[in-house]
Amino acid sequence: MLKLKYLFDNRDLAIMLLENWEYDKDALDMLDYYRISGNAIYPYKCNGEICFLRFVPWEANIENELNEEIKFIQYLLENGLNVLEPIMSKKGNYLLNKNTPWGKYLACAFRRVEGDRLDGFNSDGIDWTDELIIGYGKELGKIHKFSSKYKNVPKKSCFEMIEEMDNFIKTKLENDKIISKELEEVKNLLQRLPQNKSNYGLIHGDYELDNVFYDKKTKKYSVIDFGSSIYHWYTMDIEISLNNLQEELPQMEFEKIKTLFINGYKEKYQINEDEFKYLPLFRRFENLSKYIELKELLEETWDNEPLWMLELRKELNKYLEELENSFEIMENTNC
Fold this sequence. Notes:
Blueprint: H1 11-18, E1 35-36, E2 40-46, E3 49-57, H2 60-78, E4 96-100, E5 103-111, E6 116-117, H3 130-147, H4 158-172, H5 177-192, E7 200-202, E8 212-215, E9 220-223, E10 231-233, H6 234-248, H7 254-268, H8 279-297, H9 307-333
Antiparallel strand pairs: 1-2, 2-3, 3-5, 4-5, 6-8, 7-10, 8-9
């Protein structure tokens, strides 16, 4: 998630950046349906087609990451996968670095994928059949199949993330003993895991229901938002997906969901059964990264914050407490 100060709707900035692409000037009301989280995303139309402008405040390392994200997406498209398609700007670039009155920003644009989001948002209802869950797993298997053949991508690794988390704990959390110990244990356990091209590579990093669309007519899945992609074990993506399925489909038996999803995944990408015993470790890694992200987000405060920001702080602090409790359980059980 972006820092809280960037979560405000900035329509003038969005229009200024959008001028770098072709768009329908008589359909700017589409911008009202913006969403800001890890990026600012503003929908717009070009020749009647729905597209999305995406932008973030500039950082050198982020610029490199975004360039590589677009290259990976193009590679998947070339190999027939249904993923969001980047749109070239008027100047012939996919990613733009622009100076604005609000600072320097990185911007890109994508075409809308077909279908409805699997989390049910903006949908007329999705019937969660066995076939749908199997297909959801298959789509992730396809991504990993081609990722295992993809080379020379200077994307961040999970070990670089651990270094960043460690630095934050030392400088901002006054070497919090419980968090420091948890991070050290996770780091040591990860370093012992077998690592090869069949089990470790570029993962999606956020393969959840809101990032996958399903077209009922064609029965095709489309995947969006590769912004969290990093080098990690492929089963990290599986853990993220299964955890999200458990949260979003509480009415269904989780063990059945897990079996269907993994069976679908294996139809497209074979992975050693031993890999699945690492899922609890990857949950610990994910909890740590979310905890550090939230701590960093909540650092800054301002006078007279709007009500929506105060409510958001309350929700984020609640989630932060849940994560803290999970670390304390690990401490008390010596897991």
